[in-house]
Amino acid sequence: MSIEKKKKKKEADMPRYVGFIRNVDDSRTGLSPGEAQRTLEAYVTWSDDLERQGKLVLSSGLSHSQSRVVRLVDGSLASTDGPHTEATEVVGGFIVVEADDLDQAEKLFGTHPHLRFGPIEVRKIGENGCEA
User: Fold this and answer.
1) pLDDT: is 13 or 48 the higher one?
2) What's phi and psi for 20, nearest 5 deg?
3) Do the beta carbons of residue 99 and residue 55 sit within 8 Å?
4) CA 73 – CA 128 distance, rounded (Å)
């Protein structure tokens, strides 16, 4: 097997974990422009560090204005503008990383600067669709 194929196989075997960045109401209100800039720079630095380590797969914020909650109500499709506005925490973004196991993923996410403002929910991405 070539080195290239071995590398791709190793990458395919590496478990992936998603971190849901949860925003808590008003957790960032009151930040001065300077604090907001430093916070943004800390987020970028964290992502850049993980990318250099080869651990970062994908990350993105999520729109609040271009979102809907879709459900079936009595067999008919219904939707409301989302996310859940009554919730005190909403998912504001997500990050996918490669890690050996959940403990390593927790350690990676445990250094994210967002933790000053709200929690990060970490879940393993199932290899075979839904996974217990």
Assistant:
1) 48
2) -90, 115
3) yes
4) 29
- Non-local CB neighbours of 25 within 8 Å, separated by 6+ positions: 88, 89
Residues 84, 52 contacting (CB under 8 angstroms): no
**pLDDT, tens digit (0-9, with 9 covering 90-100), for 6-46:** 445 455 579 999 999 998 766 667 789 999 899 999 999 99
Question: Hunting for tokens 């989302």 — which residue is that?
Answer: 82
H/E run at residue 42:
helix 33-52
Residue 113 structure tokens? 């600067």
Residues with Cβ within 8 Å of residue 8, at least 6 apart in sequence: none
Angle at 87 between CA 83 and CA 91, to 5 degrees: 50
- Count of residues making up the chain: 132
CB 119 within 8 A of CB 20: no
101, 55 Cβ separation under 8 angstroms: no
pTM of the full predicted structure? 0.78
